[in-house]
Amino acid sequence: MSKVEPRATAPDAPPAAAPLPVSPVRGPRRGRLSPARRREALAGLAFVAPMLVLFTVFRFGPTLGAAFLSLTDYRINGDWTFIGTANYTRLIADDLFWDSLTVTAVYTALYVPMTVLLALGTAVLLHRTLWLRGFFRGLFFLPYVTSVVLAAVIWKWIYEVQDGLLNSALGGLGLGPVDFLGSEHLVLPSIAAASAWKGFGYSMLILLAGLQSVPREITEAAVIDGATAWQRFRWVTLPMLRPVLFFVLVIEAIQAFQVFDAMYVMTAGGPVRASYSLVYFLYDSGFKFFDFGYASAVGLVLFLIVLVFSLIQRRLIGRETD
Question: What is the pTM of this model?
Answer without folding.
Answer: 0.81
